[in-house]
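#struct-help
A.M.: can someone run this one for me? Single chain, 66 residues.
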Amino acid sequence: MTKQLVVIFWSVLFGEVIGYIGSALETMTYNPGEIGIVAAVFALVVVNGISLITNHSMPFKGSENK
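D.P.: on it. Structure tokens below:
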């Protein structure tokens, strides 16, 4: 659970910075709520997807699944 909270915190933080810079470069309106939600959902999907894939790719040492 703490891993998920850390991912949400940092993704929202980085998403806000990237969204602010991107909106200034593209002369678009800056919407912090929408940017934060999209960044958090995207980061959770990516991190959990990578974690799921790597957990199944290498079994633990001594396990019967080789």
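A.M.: thanks! The radius of gyration is 17 Å.
D.P.: also worth noting: The chain is about 75% helix and 0% strand.
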